[in-house]
Amino acid sequence: MDRIDFLGFVLLLRDISRLDRYSTRQKKGHLYTTHKTGPPIASRMSLYVVGLDGLTFDLVDRWIDSLPNLRALKQGGAATSLNSVHPPITGPAWMSIYTGLDPSVFNRYHFNHFNPDDRSFSATSRSGLGYEYFWERLDDERICLLNLPMTYPPSDQDNTIVCGHMGAPGSVVTKPDSLTDDLAAAGVELAYHDLTETSKTDPDAFMSEGTRQFEVMSDAWHVLEDRDSWDLFFGQFSVADWAHHFLWDDLKTSSDPHLRKIYQRIDSFIGDVRDKLGPDDDLVIVSDHGGGNCKGVIYLNELLRREGLLVLENDGGSVSNQVFNRLDITKSTIEKYDVLNLLEYVREHVPARIKSSIPTEGSGRAFASLVNSHSIDWRASSAYVLSDGLLFCDGAAIDLIENYLETRGLSVDFVDLQCEYTTDSTQMPDYVVYIEDLAFEIKDDVFTNDIVAYDPDSHSHQGSHRRNGVFIGHGPSFETCGFSKTNAWLPDIAPTLLAVLGRDIPEAMTGDPLINLLDDHALADRQPERISYSIKSDTDKLSRSEEQQVNERLQNLGYLK
């Protein structure tokens, strides 16, 4: 391709990409319906766990008067904030809740796991994790698992399960297989309702489209709850986290924000669950992290590249990438507006070096693409960062990042994972970087126009994660102490739930039961002890096609680039 052809190709892509800026947004209304519940089932001793991804006391307390069920549970039970994992990423966070282990033990820190030993990426999933989830030891218990992230593929011990959308490829997987048909016969059509592009940008569309997954799974909860007399029923819902990401700015402009309506819908569902509890049943509400506003995006790898700490094999070969980036031309806009069959032309006639330089998004070139294309000079590089601040470096990088951000009035914290966690793994990042208390998202792109991007159009999320999760326990196994300040963290959840179920706790778990929140009299005849048994397990890894499907779903949800 000569220079004239290349310029013509670029200008054509520019015109196509402009269509994206003027695309119309379809607004839809949504009317919530309340599930009708029957009377409580008597004499059933069960533990119900409602997992609410991203739920935060910051908003619960703000709207406590309009959340009667959460208010009653918090004030009449035992509640505390939970310290999440570093960084507070949904996948590893729920795995920590299930295993009772901190991430350094099972060695997963993000949805896209990077192995620095062989410099490879793989999807984080239950496959290949190497450790059991706490319920796998409950052989004689009746257990129902609904929509839990990172539970695909189901294990031999999972007798009744609807695998969660995170970490699962393709259509909904259930066990037994007939469960899908059983739910359909009851009027619940299982499907993974991922977010649409419209629901990510239009609050009204989010209220109709972004809540479909919650509505389907809450209906499934009620059907499955009546299917058997369960010892443990554990379900999870992601709607609060999704709403934080795409509705947070509504808090600044509306007296009746959409986000509050989401919390009220969650509270209504919790009320439905409460209505069916028996007098001996326990209810736990737990979240994996909190949420807060997102001020912008910071590209630390671009800073490291410019300062010579991240060295590429051919750093001067990024001119075409810069051209595409300047014109806001991305692969997604080409695919979206491919009215001229441009993709076929690109595949057949555009040189590979130019094709590889077309950004996935408008922000540059992702670190994973540099790794996969062998573009990094590893011998010359002394630092690099993965998304959400997972930093591999020496001391020079810390000083560089700290000085750069402080001159721009931004606070930064470096969390030394060797000090925070129990296992010193060779695959563990050296530090996690938090900027403005997680108010800035850290992305791993290089060749970006800016290192710090404040413009709301420069990032996809209005809200970002915080490290303050939620725990509320209510029922005969819990104290009625209200909210207490503790040092509780996510690995404490599995041993706490085992204690409520009257089971002993593996010594290998790094968490401890939240004894101060448990009722001594109720647990007098089932005090848990630490016992020695292995919680390791062997599971097959995902196939390459399954990994690709998992990553595509996570990209659509905004968890991966």
From TrEMBL:
Q: Name one GO molecular function term.
A: hydrolase activity
Where is the region Disordered?
A: 534-561
Organism superkingdom: Archaea
Q: Which Pfam families match?
A: Phosphodiest (PF01663)
Q: What is this protein called?
A: Nucleotide pyrophosphatase
Question: In what ranges is there compositional bias, type Basic and acidic residues?
Answer: 537-547
